[in-house]
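can u do me a favor
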């Protein structure tokens, strides 16, 4: 069946509410006949034989047409579309307006068309019509409330605290009360509005604000807490959830405003509280119009495209209509996985997946010569701090030299923009991973400096072998003329859920019953979700003019110890009781907090408040490029003094087994 056929079938599918609407229409027709008959019958002492034909015949000839007209008008007043188990003042008013309007029409029409009727016929007919119409509709809600009340009296279900006495909270409350699928009972409500305190909604007391949560959890023996404040600011939601996480209660919340606006407010729409909810800031949703204009119709290469950051880059780039997307990764499993996902999500995407290492200059030249990418997002890197401390030469080979070889191939093959994915660990690094990423930043700044000076030919091509990738094969230097590549770096902190991040590690430790290992009780980090970070990386790339180090605003730092404790609570356990927390000490190369900028760097604003530009720290570019050749040879020779060589090039690198700053 084609899409048009499916849409037609879906549009004509009979839903449960359609059946209820038809039954309600039939009831209304009968009720209207009955209302005016009883009014006429009562006028003559409820003796049918006393009703004169002069009154009964006009009634008989008119009432059916009038009832059908009422059904049509009631439809336009949405009296057949309302969810009557949630009926409120709005439904009452709408029913009154529709009934009163039709009663007036009835009085005028029957009088002028068929003759004058008794005054009591008009008056009592109008009243009884309204009562019968309203009664059947609100009786459904009354029945549900009575059933819920009976259920709560004999219920052994769980006791619920509802946070939020607004419209969303009331809908959740009524849904729980009327549900036949759960025996749960809302026993108290929390709201920060003092005007609502000590008042009652559907028999449930509003007992106070957020400061009263812990007291009332104990007082009412609460099992579950439902947060139903879709309009709450992220900071307020975080503070409330942090208070709730001090209890042993199960926590759930409404996903957000979308569900409230679309009317999808029910117990089933509640979701578990995630660790992101406790970070206390709204999700960053930048306007990516400029990104679309920048990427659309261009060939884009993502190195490390199978990794956590690289794969998200690929996903978001795929939505911006590139001419071709090239994924380059050394690890075939990751590359294959993202290839399958992208082909499924974007069947029309011109996608190419290539396997290789950024450390192989011949492979990089081959890729750039064959595909001529105009934009490169360089995400390929070794990022695990303790592992790189044990293998420092690998950090230099892959991060620094790999970036150099990729950048060089991009420069001489007509690439327009080269965006390096950097890290806050490059700021005052105390580990070789951070120092190697600072080398990467210095490399792209050196390339940019030489290009702007018109001296791209002075950038040495680093070889670990002699091969066909020699850029200036004919020795004329023509390849270095009209170089237009702009080199920039984007620096940000930790991302939630990335490979090797603390959240997946903590979850695995909790699943095993603990202990959860935290390096230090005071260690703090900046966090951002992967989609947020990648969106800002893409946006920063559009602002580039060459040589910038863009710094993303990561918000407020988060204590890792607090993060671990909250995750344990969200998993339904008590920290240090059910799941132990062990402090293992800072690992080699770690420090208590990460910095986003070096002291020597200042910040300049961009058009986006979340993206800043760090003023570059001056260094001798020529001396740096000469040292890189020595560093490369030492790394490939696996020299034991590689850290000292790096320290000689990165003046802010201070080796330490661990650091308290």
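np, heres the sequence
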């Amino acid at each position: 069946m084609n899409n048009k056929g499916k849409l037609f079938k879906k549009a004509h599918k009979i839903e449960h509410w359609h059946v209820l609407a038809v039954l309600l229409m039939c009831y209304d027709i009968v009720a209207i006949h009955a209302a005016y008959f009883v009014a006429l019958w009562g006028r003559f002492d409820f003796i049918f034989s006393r009703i004169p034909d002069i009154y009964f015949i006009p009634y008989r000839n008119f009432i059916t047409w009038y009832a059908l007209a009422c059904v049509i008008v009631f439809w336009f007043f949405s009296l057949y579309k309302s969810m009557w188990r949630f009926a409120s003042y709005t439904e009452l008013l709408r029913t009154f307006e529709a009934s009163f309007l039709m009663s007036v029409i009835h009085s005028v029409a029957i009088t002028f068309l068929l003759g004058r009727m008794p005054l009591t016929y008009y008056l009592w007919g109008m009243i009884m019509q309204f009562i019968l119409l309203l009664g059947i509709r609100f009786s459904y809600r009354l029945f549900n409330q009575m059933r819920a009340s009976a259920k709560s009296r004999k219920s052994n279900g769980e006791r619920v605290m509802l946070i939020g006495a607004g419209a969303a909270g009331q809908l959740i409350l009524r849904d729980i009360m009327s549900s036949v699928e759960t025996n749960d009972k809302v026993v108290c409500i929390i709201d920060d509005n003092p005007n609502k305190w000590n008042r009652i909604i559907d028999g449930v007391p509003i007992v106070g604000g957020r400061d009263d949560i812990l007291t009332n959890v104990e007082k009412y023996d609460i099992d579950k807490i439902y947060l139903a404040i879709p309009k709450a600011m992220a900071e307020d939601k975080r503070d409330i959830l942090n208070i709730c996480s001090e209890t042993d209660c199960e926590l759930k919340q409404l996903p957000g405003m979308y569900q409230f606006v679309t009317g999808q407010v029910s117990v089933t729409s509640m979701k578990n509280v995630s660790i992101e909810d406790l970070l206390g800031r709204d999700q960053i949703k930048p306007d990516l119009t400029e990104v679309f204009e920048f990427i659309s119709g261009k060939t884009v290469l993502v190195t490390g495209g199978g990794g956590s950051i690289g794969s998200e880059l690929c996903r978001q780039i795929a939505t911006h209509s590139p001419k071709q997307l090239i994924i380059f990764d050394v690890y075939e499993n990751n590359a294959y996985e993202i290839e399958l996902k992208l082909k499924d999500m974007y069947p029309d995407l011109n996608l190419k997946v290539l396997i290789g290492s950024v450390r192989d200059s011949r492979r990089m030249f081959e890729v750039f010569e064959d595909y001529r990418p105009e934009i490169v997002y360089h995400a390929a890197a070794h990022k695990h701090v303790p592992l790189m401390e044990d293998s420092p030469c690998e950090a230099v080979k892959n991060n620094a030299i790999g970036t150099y070889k990729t950048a060089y191939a991009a420069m001489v093959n007509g690439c327009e923009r080269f965006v390096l994915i950097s890290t806050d660990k490059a700021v005052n690094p105390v580990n070789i991973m951070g120092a190697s990423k600072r080398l990467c930043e210095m490399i792209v700044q050196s390339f940019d400096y030489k290009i702007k000076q018109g001296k791209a030919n002075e950038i040495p091509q680093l070889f670990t072998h002699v091969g066909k990738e020699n850029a200036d094969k004919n020795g004329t230097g023509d390849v270095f003329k009209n170089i237009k590549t702009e080199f920039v770096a984007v620096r940000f902190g930790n991302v939630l859920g990335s490979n090797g991040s603390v959240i997946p590690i903590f979850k695995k430790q909790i699943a095993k019953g603990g202990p959860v290992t935290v390096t230090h009780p005071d260690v703090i980090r900046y966090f951002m979700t992967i989609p947020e970070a990648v969106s800002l990386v893409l946006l920063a790339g559009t602002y580039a003019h060459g040589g910038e180090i863009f710094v993303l605003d990561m918000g407020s730092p988060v204590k890792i110890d607090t993060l671990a404790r909250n995750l344990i609570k969200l998993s339904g356990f008590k920290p240090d009781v059910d799941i132990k927390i062990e402090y293992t000490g800072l690992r080699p190369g770690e420090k208590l907090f990460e910095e986003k900028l070096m002291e020597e760097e200042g910040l300049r604003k961009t058009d986006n408040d979340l993206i800043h530009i760090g003023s570059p720290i001056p260094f001798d570019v020529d001396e740096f490029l000469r040292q890189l050749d020595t560093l490369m040879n030492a790394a490939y020779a696996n020299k034991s003094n590689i850290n000292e060589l790096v320290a000689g090039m990165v003046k802010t690198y201070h080796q330490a087994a661990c650091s308290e700053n």
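The longest strand covers residues 417-423. hope that helps!!
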